[in-house]
User: What shape does this take?
Amino acid sequence: MKKFRVGVVGCGKISGIYFKNIPQFDALELSACADLDRERAHAAAQEFKIPRVLDTDALLADKDIDIVLNLTVPQGHVPVNLKAIENGKHVFVEKPFALSVGDGNTVLDLARKKGVLVGCAPDTVLGAGYQTVRREIEAGAIGRPTSAMAFMLCHGHESWHPDPEFYYLKGGGPMLDMGPYYLTALITCLGPVRRVSAETGLAFAERTITSQPKAGRKMPVEVPTHQSGTLLFDGGIIATVVMSFDIWANNLPRIEIHGTKGSLSCPDPNSFGGRVARNTGDKNGWQDIPNLKRFGENSRGLGLADLAQAVQEGRTPRASGALALHVLEVMLAFDKSAKEGRHVNIQSKIDRPAPRTDDAIASTLP
Assistant: This one.
């Protein structure tokens, strides 16, 4: 199998798990890293034995890099992607794919022109948990799916994240931060979304950081921090979705999917494994379903490895830019629906990615 040399832009909090996992995929090889904070990039290179530390522009143009892994903050996703693609690199980017549908389309259009592939997190849906959910739905375990519910409820990230400000600026908020996990899971299992109806709110115009090293600092809130809406899928399935940074505590499920013959309790879509259970309304109640065997632990990088194999196999990556753009359009429709007081029809059309088989991606990860 060909080794694809990966250059990583952005050595912040999420990068560690990628640096740890990338060498465990047969198709990937860590080649270089870059960060606006040069010292942080050098620290990552030393810890994870990355051969080279480069400036961002030098990394994006480096002839010895095949794929750019873009782990910058959301505002940097599109500019870095465009520079990498212009230089003929394949790209895999952290979520969200872009901050506007137009910018996302610009990235995909340039990728088609340059003949490169684009992938986007989350790749958690390729893990054992949601691949098991998908297998059960497609096997008819709950009959025909009719509805779903998804809840991501917390009180924001200022109590634990060292640099939480960007979560409350344009490009942040609960929907663009955590929505990709939940909506990608729903769309992977149920198909594309046709229409969105929503309301949004903001409980606190200013927040106080309680995490170190910025404890006590005030930060403004520019985006809605509570978003509640209804999705209508192409197949007529209706889903209720609530994303909030304004909730102190709750006792609601992450995701449930209901059908004509039963219901599925689904795991946290921000994880690769987790409990899957089925209830068909009989006296047995909720029964655990054994997960698929592979990639049940934190396997970030799985979508990156699938992209590398997609290049060799001449196919679309499972965690594709097109899927991420559809998810982005759905997420942005929440605010649009609330502001304009109407249903918002989704324009992008996608096919569900192919399911992953246990032996599809060669790796030493469990």
